[in-house]
């Protein structure tokens, strides 16, 4: 997959979000780390009110899902604010599933692609390779 010029690449798992921007062009896409806003995970699902069991997620899973919701909210705000025109999301498979539940219609419109892989903590070059191989 190509990374359009100026595109934002969001790399997330249930605990961290790293944002990168393509500062080159599609043929030569050097990703540069971008300063991002803090993700708020105040929005907890209904599972936060229930005791943990096989039918209800444990506290750690609730925290990860809340972080994914906060990440989606942050990306939605940036898309709606015109800060993101093209977006590629790379996230751990479970996190990606949770993110998708909260995409705004305009975020879906600027979404260039998704990769279900945990690449948080990897270098920009490794992320470039993963996107190029997708």
UniProtKB/TrEMBL annotation:
Record-given protein name: Protein required for attachment to host cells
Species classification: Bacteria, Pseudomonadati, Pseudomonadota, Alphaproteobacteria, Hyphomicrobiales
Pfam families the UniProt entry points to: baeRF_family12 (PF18856)
Domain of life: Bacteria
Disordered as annotated region, ranges: 20-67
Composition bias type Polar residues, residue spans: 49-60
């Amino acid at each position: 997959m190509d990374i359009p010029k100026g595109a934002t690449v969001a790399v997330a798992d249930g605990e961290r979000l790293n944002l990168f921007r393509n500062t080159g062009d599609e043929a030569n896409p050097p990703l540069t780390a971008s300063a991002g806003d803090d993700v708020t995970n105040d929005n907890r699902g209904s599972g936060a009110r229930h005791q943990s069991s096989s039918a209800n997620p444990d506290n750690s899973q609730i925290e990860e899902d809340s972080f994914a919701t906060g990440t989606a909210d942050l990306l939605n705000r940036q898309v709606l604010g015109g800060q993101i025109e093209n977006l590629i999301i790379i996230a751990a498979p479970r996190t990606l599933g949770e993110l998708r539940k909260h995409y705004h219609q305009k975020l879906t419109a600027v979404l260039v692609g998704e990769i279900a892989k945990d690449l948080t903590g990897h270098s920009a070059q490794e992320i470039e390779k993963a996107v190029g191989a997708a």
